Amino acid sequence: MHHNAGLAGLGSSSYIDAVILRDDHEDDWTEAADSTLERRVYYCQNWRADVVALLAENGRVVERAWYEPYGTPHGLNPGDFGGTSSSGDDHYLVPDGDSDSDDATTYLALFGGGNALSDTTGSSDPGDGEYGRPNGVIDSDDYFYFLDRAGDAVTLGRNVLSAGHDGAIASHGAGNLRNRRGLAGYEWDPHVRRYHVRNRLLYPEIGRWTRRDPLGYVDGMGLYAYCRGSPALYVDALGLDIAGCAQRRYDNITRGLSPSFKCASQLRSALLDCCTTLITSPPGAPGFDFAACVQDARSAFDDCCGSSNCPPAPAPAPVTPAPVAPAPLPAPNKPGSPFPPGADCMKQCETVQLIFTARCFNCPLQGRALCSQIAARGVWWCLNDCASLPINATKPARDYYNLMQRTLAACDSLSDLQDILDLIPRSGTASTCAGCGGGAAPH
């Protein structure tokens, strides 16, 4: 279940991967399925929507996680108190993903010293509603609760986000949480150790996407870069373009308005200061209230707009695209022509494909996919024709070139693009390809 309350309860402005809870079966996968969902877990997410803890219905922490800058997960179980029992070591009280003798030694030292960190429960009875909920009293219940958690804890750690994700294997044993929501709420795949982010896969080990940005250079020149190399400032929930902490709040506050440059700049600067302080402040640091910071920025913006500096945004005027005339076919002896005399026929086809695959990005967003499909299907026919002609034949590449020129001329019309695509069958002989020659564009 996801959030959709939105700004001021109006709906639809919440982050797409903000999760509330999950109901599922607790049975082992070999048991017979039934209609009863035995388990409910609640998700705790930080400012970037990273899932940092899972809670049982009574508020007990059943699993935690932290993430490296580009999202490599480190799962933590409740019995994990640190990577070493030596108080002078840098890894003291820094969980490492497993429950071992170091955790037991550390907990006993905290418990014996009356440290508040050893307060883990209000009851040692798993059936009690206070089980796993600290109550401010350090007693034997806390010690027995630690023994319970350490005894049934699953080794997690680096690249193992949740119980049931044993390295590259997803186990469905009883009791395993099998959480797959990680960095920014993205879907973690334990088999390949990547995040599924709708349009692309994110490879956190190298901080890169596994394929080019489908929208091209909208986020800069790095087509494989994740969030412009600034994962602490931005998220990219669609795998297409980034949305920053400050930008999301700016969009919410200014929705429906056309603020003056002064008001807009003032608001952006204030929100960026809020987000930067949030990111750089230690968790729970006193003296900084992020919500109050954003509210102060909004109040200052409202004061600026009160002097008529923020009129309603005008409705966009309808745009009628001008007809695009096909460019003339390059002459064989023209410099840079894809059809130089004597050139290999198949090489000419590949050259034309490179030219027009790039030009497809000049089409409106809805037409890019169809343009790319036409380019991919057309080059197959071009290469197929070359196989039955002399090595230096130019007709297949010229027909392919004409086809793509007609495609670009029609890229504002989805119906025309679909008509062109339908004329190019997926298989058959060259004679069955009605759209592969130099005929007129369909209408």
Annotate the secondary structure layout.
Layout: E1 21-24, E2 39-45, E3 51-55, E4 61-67, E5 73-76, H1 101-112, H2 140-152, E6 157-158, E7 165-166, E8 169-170, E9 187-189, E10 194-197, E11 200-203, E12 208-209, E13 234-235, E14 243-244, H3 245-253, H4 261-280, H5 290-305, H6 345-359, H7 365-386, H8 395-409, H9 414-422
Antiparallel strand pairs: 1-2, 2-3, 3-4, 4-5, 5-6, 7-8, 9-10, 10-11, 11-12, 13-14
Helix pairs in contact: 1-2, 3-4, 4-5, 6-7, 6-8, 7-8, 7-9
Task: Name the helix and strand elements from N-terminus to C-terminus, one letter apiece.
Answer: EEEEEHHEEEEEEEEEHHHHHHH
Q: How many domain regions? A: 4
Task: Sketch the major β-sheet.
Answer: 6 strands, antiparallel
Structural class by sheet pairing and helices:
alpha+beta
Q: What would the principal axes of the Cα set say about the shape?
A: extended
The oligomeric state is single chain
Give the termini distance in whole angstroms.
46 Å
The residue fraction in helices comes out at 25-40%
Mean pLDDT: 78
Task: Please count the helical segments.
Answer: 9
Rg measurement, Å: 30 Å
Task: Estimate what percentage of residues fall within beta strands.
Answer: 5-15%
Description:
The chain is an alpha+beta fold. It folds into four domains: 7-170, no CATH class; 196-245, no CATH class; 250-305, no CATH class; 345-432. The protein contains nine helices and 14 strands. The strands form four sheets. Strands 1-2-3-4-5-6 form a six-stranded antiparallel β-sheet, with no helix packed on it. The protein has a four-stranded antiparallel β-sheet with strand order 9-10-11-12, with no helix packed on it. The protein is extended. Mean pLDDT is 78; it is low at 5-13, 167-174, 428-432 and 438-443.
